[in-house]
């Protein structure tokens, strides 16, 4: 999986990142340094301090990245024999390099699966280094190389080195999105460690000063994102955030969303991702997956081969093989009896054999796990089985059934020459190296799998063109087309972009290869990308390896925190190897993923589903004064629904200067609520008891009412006890003034708790006193009982609109977002 253009402030280039920016050493969801763990395991000789005392057998099902890593790490432990079952006739799974001969030159590669590798893939690079494989930083991302964008049949140039195409709307959208990401995560290229407020700031501090306190700040910052976005689609979140005028040049329209959908992702724009969980997208940016992509000139197949050699070379002290690799061996079913796991394995000829193991690692997609029967009760079909023992917990079964896998198709060709270089085409022109479109083909990449010569691209030999790389619905659309039909379908869009390029491509095409991952046997999907609401299932699946009583352990990209990346799959292989080795009696080295990652670090469960406005440090909203808000000495009411963890003013309409009146509704640090009125000379206020539970980060309805001069406060529909202070005479004070009504702040400097931080929604002003019963009913029913006297109603759910008849919208000041 791959994005096209990262926001321009994010780790612009490696040198930048190394010198002053922030580059994460771990994934945000684990904060575990796998590289350090692997280095330490190398110095011990394996991941185990002590091998099991007796000979043990572990089956690894699936010879993809995670299965290979697991088998490799286990193969280094004494007294453990490994059998690797692979259903296909080759190892590698979605590491799927198809090689094409090119005379005396290097062979060429079609990377049908993974093809671009960010250097923040620490586990991957650990193994690449170990096996002497070198990645090169010349992956032709859009905007890194000469690129063209075809959008609504218009060709827009996208010059090399530019984050967006040369069109003011695309530039605006790109800049806006950059602001949104910076607003949510901070600026990785310049984390603010002096005044930290965002994830990258805290993370940079933690990396340079690792302590429990600095780590907790990182966790809190990511938790805030999880709490706000784990139930929101990418489309919803971006659209809502892009209505916030403090983040975008102007609120985005449908047309802007369409354009944004054509930008940003390797598979032809963000559009195919609009339905996935927004948190999954933020993970990509948080983890730095989008930076400095590299490719392997020898293809990722070289890594598979290296693992295979290493596995076949692993020997016991008396020279016997430690690993048996079974190809064309499809595991049909797993069951457990006594302390052994029994596998039914069908070989190429369809013969089914059963074998038993002390422990099993299932390193396949969740869909393959489902087909293996992992979600079915263990004793189904076996009436004699007295003891039903599920292979995995209920939560993990839900995850296996439901976690969303993306569809994806690729279409590769080799060309006689690399015709996009000027020396290789008749006009001597630089043709596009990359084409992005909103048509069926989506993204095209010209790839050079030859070593640079004297620091310059090697323009000799065959070219490799990935003509089409698509995801989601675009991939489903292609399923019914033959390779020839697809090629014919793609050509018109390529001609529309650049006829010369298209002609040379058509003329020079030699070998063709395409894949649809969702219909690929034994894989059944491209990679995991959660739908909204699946984070908890993801957690259950990822942390399954920590269920110590289970000798069956899951691994693979589709239970990871980085679906679509080897760096998602590989660490799960390490987790599984540690868990299985421990289960069979090995002692694992310290600081392993068994102890070094806490499953309680984050709460991924769904909270209350409330759309709301988030006010941060200096953020507040202001509504211009209108005559309807001049309550004078009359009755009035203020309502707001809030969620906060600190003190601050909910609604304020009072200035510092005396002379004119006003009112304010404040949460105080001891948890009491204050409702104050003032006529410019004197004040009258009430405060609820300090024990009032309101600073607890959960949603509360707060209502303040003045009736005949008497003030009352209500929390969650109930009248609060309160104490009064100020003027003893209870004749109502004249609160009228010409000030803006502020939400989340007040202009009165004497107020010690001015800024409100937290969620706020459903703010209403009434030119009458709400009755105690009305307040209770409105709270219970969640609706307004009688609109009489309603002078302002700001739902603050997605925008700043006032939906009362006054239509007096608030404006945004400072750090405010709509969630
Ligand atoms: C189109 C595409 C593009 C990608 N791009 C990138 C990229 O640019 N960069 C990057 O880092 N990552 C990328 N990835 C992701 C990366 O390829 C995967 O994360 C990784 O290869 C997954 O490894 P795995 O071990 O989880 O699963 P797999 O590779 O799926 O391995 C599982 C293995 O289990 C076998 N199996 C299944 N069922 C059985 C059974 N019953 N019995 C025995 N064997 C079985 C399968 O045949 C398969 O070999 C991409 C993936 C795809 C599909």
* Overall mean pLDDT: 92
Which blocks of ≥5 consecutive residues have pLDDT under 50? 1-19
Instruction: Tally the beta strands.
Output: 39
CATH topology descriptor of the domain at 14-31 and 136-288 and 406-519: Polyamine Oxidase, Chain A, domain 2
Estimated structural class: alpha+beta
What is the 3D shape?
globular
Q: Which features does this protein show?
A:
8-stranded antiparallel β-sheet; alpha+beta; 39 strands; tryptophan 2-monooxygenase activity; 20 helices; 819 residues; Jelly Rolls; Polyamine Oxidase, Chain A, domain 2; single chain; Tryptophan 2-monooxygenase; auxin biosynthesis
Describe the structure.
The protein is of the alpha+beta class and 819 residues long. Among the domains are: 14-31 and 136-288 and 406-519, Polyamine Oxidase, Chain A, domain 2 (Alpha-Beta Complex); 613-818, Jelly Rolls. It is 26% helix and 24% strand. It is built from 20 helices and 39 strands. Strands 24, 26, 31, 32, 33, 36, 37 and 39 form an eight-stranded antiparallel beta sheet that branches. Strands 34-30-29-28-27-35-25-38 form an eight-stranded antiparallel beta sheet, with no helix packed on it. A hairpin with a 2-residue loop joins strand 31 (700-707) and strand 32. Helix 3 runs parallel beside helix 11 (301-313), helix 3 (65-75) packs parallel to helix 18 (566-583) and helix 13 (394-402) packs across helix 17 (535-542). The protein is globular and about 95 Å long. 54% of the residues are buried. Flavin-adenine dinucleotide binds next to helix 3, strand 11, strand 16 and helix 18. Residues 634-768 form the Laminin G domain. This is Tryptophan 2-monooxygenase. One of its GO terms (molecular function) is tryptophan 2-monooxygenase activity. InterPro entries: Amino_oxidase (IPR002937), ConA-like_dom_sf (IPR013320), FAD/NAD-bd_sf (IPR036188), Flavin_monoamine_oxidase (IPR050281), Laminin_G (IPR001791). Its EC number is 1.13.12.3.
């Amino acid at each position: 999986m791959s994005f096209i253009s990262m926001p321009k402030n994010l780790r612009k280039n490696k040198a930048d990142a190394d010198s002053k920016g922030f580059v994460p050493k771990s994934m945000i969801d684990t904060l575990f340094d796998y590289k350090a763990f692997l280095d330490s395991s190398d110095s011990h000789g394996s991941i185990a301090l002590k091998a099991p005392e007796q000979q043990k057998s572990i089956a690894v099902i699936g010879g993809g990245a995670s299965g290979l890593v697991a088998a490799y790490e286990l193969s280094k432990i004494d007294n453990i024999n490994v059998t690797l079952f692979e259903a296909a006739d080759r190892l590698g799974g979605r590491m799927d390099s198809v090689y094409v001969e090119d005379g005396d030159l290097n062979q060429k590669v079609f990377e049908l699966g993974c093809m671009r590798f960010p250097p923040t893939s620490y586990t991957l690079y650990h193994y690449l280094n170990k096996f002497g494989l070198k990645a090169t930083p010349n992956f032709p991302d859009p905007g890194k190389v000469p690129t063209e964008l075809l959008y609504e049949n218009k060709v827009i140039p996208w010059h090399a080195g530019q984050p967006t195409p040369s069109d003011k709307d695309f530039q605006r959208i790109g800049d806006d999105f950059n602001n949104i990401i910076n607003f949510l995560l901070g600026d990785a290229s310049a984390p603010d460690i002096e005044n930290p407020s965002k994830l990258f700031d805290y993370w940079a501090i933690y990396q340079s000063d690792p302590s429990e306190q600095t780590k907790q700040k990182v966790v809190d910052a990511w938790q805030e994102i999880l709490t706000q976005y784990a139930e929101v689609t990418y489309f919803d979140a971006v659209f809502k955030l892009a209505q916030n005028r403090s983040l975008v040049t102007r609120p985005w329209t449908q047309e802007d969303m369409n354009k944004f959908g054509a930008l940003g992702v390797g598979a032809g724009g963000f559009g195919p991702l609009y339905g996935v969980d927004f948190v999954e997208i933020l993970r990509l940016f948080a983890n730095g997956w989008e930076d400095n992509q590299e490719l392997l000139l020898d293809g990722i197949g070289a890594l598979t081969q290296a693992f295979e050699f290493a596995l076949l070379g692993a020997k016991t002290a008396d020279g016997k093989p430690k690993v048996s690799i079974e190809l064309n061996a499809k595991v049909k079913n797993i069951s457990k009896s006594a302390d052994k796991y029994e596998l039914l394995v069908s070989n190429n000829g369809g013969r089914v054999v059963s074998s038993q193991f002390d422990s099993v690692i299932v390193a396949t997609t969740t869909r393959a796990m489902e087909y293996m029967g992992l979600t079915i009760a263990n004793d189904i079909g076996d009436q004699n089985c007295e003891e039903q023992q599920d292979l995995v917990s209920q939560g993990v079964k839900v995850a296996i059934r439901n976690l969303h896998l993306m569809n994806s198709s690729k279409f590769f060709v080799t060309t006689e020459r690399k015709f996009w270089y000027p020396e290789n085409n008749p006009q001597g022109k630089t043709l596009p190296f990359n084409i992005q479109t909103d048509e069926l083909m989506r993204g095209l990449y010209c790839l050079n799998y030859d070593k640079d010569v004297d620091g310059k691209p090697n323009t000799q030999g065959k070219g490799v063109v990935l003509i089409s790389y698509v995801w989601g619905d675009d991939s489903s659309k292609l399923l019914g087309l033959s390779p020839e039909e697809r090629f014919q379908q793609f050509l018109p869009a390529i001609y529309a972009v650049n006829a010369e390029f298209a002609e040379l491509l058509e003329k020079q095409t030699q070998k063709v290869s395409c894949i649809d991952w969702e219909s690929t046997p034994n894989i059944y999907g491209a990679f995991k990308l959660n739908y909204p609401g699946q984070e908890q299932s993801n957690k259950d699946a990822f942390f399954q390896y920590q269920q110590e009583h289970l000798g069956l352990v899951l691994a693979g990209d589709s239970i990871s925190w980085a679906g679509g990346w080897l760096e998602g799959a590989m660490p799960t292989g390490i987790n599984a190897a540690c868990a299985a080795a421990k289960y069979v009696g090995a002692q694992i080295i310290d600081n392993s993923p068994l102890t070094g990652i806490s499953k309680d670090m984050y709460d991924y469960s769904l909270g209350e589903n409330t759309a709301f406005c988030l006010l941060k440090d200096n953020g507040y909203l202001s509504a211009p004064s209108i005559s309807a808000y001049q309550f004078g000495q009359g009755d009035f009411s203020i309502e707001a629904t809030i969620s906060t963890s600190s003190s601050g003013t909910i609604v304020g309409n009072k200035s510092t200067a005396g002379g004119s009146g006003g009112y304010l509704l404040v949460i105080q640090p001891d948890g009491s609520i204050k409702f104050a009125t003032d006529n410019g000379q004197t004040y009258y206020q009430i405060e609820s008891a300090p024990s009032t539970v309101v600073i607890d980060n959960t949603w509360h309805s707060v209502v303040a009412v003045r009736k005949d001069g008497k003030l009352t406060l209500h929390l969650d529909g109930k009248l609060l006890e309160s104490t009064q202070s100020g003027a003893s005479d209870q004749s109502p004070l004249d609160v009228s003034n010409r000030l803006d009504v502020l939400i989340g702040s007040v202009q009165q400097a004497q107020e010690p708790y001015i800024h409100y931080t937290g969620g706020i929604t459903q703010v209403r002003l009434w030119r009458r006193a709400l009755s105690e019963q009305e307040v209770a009913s409105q709270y219970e029913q969640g609706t307004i009982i009688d609109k009489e006297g309603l002078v302002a109603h700001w739902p603050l759910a997605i925008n700043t609109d006032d939906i009362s008849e006054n239509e007096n919208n608030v404006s945004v000041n400072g750090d405010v977002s709509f969630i």
